[in-house]
Amino acid sequence: MGHKERILVVEDETSITNFISTVLAANNFDVLSAQNGSQALMLASSHCPDAIILDLGLPDIDGQRVIQSIREWSEVPILVVSARMHERDKVAALDLGADDYVTKPFSTAELMARLRTALRHSAQRKAALGGSAQEGEYHCGGLTVDYGRHRVFLDGEDIHLTQIEFRILELLARHAGRVLTYDFMIKNIWGPNAAFDKQILRVNMANIRRKIEKNPAAPQYLRTEIGVGYWIREGD
Ligand code: CA
What we know:
By secondary structure, this protein is an alpha/beta fold. The protein is built from eight helices and twelve strands. 43% of the residues lie in helices and 21% in strands. α2 packs parallel to α3 (63-71) and α6 (163-174) crosses α8 (198-212). The chain is elongated. The mean pLDDT is 89.
């Protein structure tokens, strides 16, 4: 038997905790559970889980504060579960460092798929820290992004991108499969003090799509998460 990955479930509704725990156990995960934010912070530091499934609406500390506290010392993947329909809560959770979110009600399959993706990204991040972050490539279908040589190929053809366009594409490719918020992207590309200007990002995205998508109106690589940000398909 290999090492079981340990998941911390933070949720104050017992029925949901039981449901998620059962699903996790059936999928061969070890489960720890916390009913409130302070218990979650304690367990996160004492048991170092491999991932955290976090409800945003907790009785003591707001879920967003929990993300913030954990991110001060840990890169553990955090999957947010939220009943809240407001886009701004999702955006705030992602900006604070959550890896992904599912909105209640969600299916077992969706929860497991997102959890596995978050765990895989975390493993990839750890592996990347071991090697040189400057090197490597992203491949998906006919698209290749070569980080080291700053070049992009589409079906073997060399595609010319401006410096900014390349940095945007590289940022998305290095987080492939994960939604990056407008704010995260703008701060990353134009610096932490950049004014929040979604328009300049949108213009650059349109230019990149024009260069790498066969049909920019129905993109197969660069996806838009309306009201939240952008993501690129996972590499193959
Ligand atoms: Ca709750």
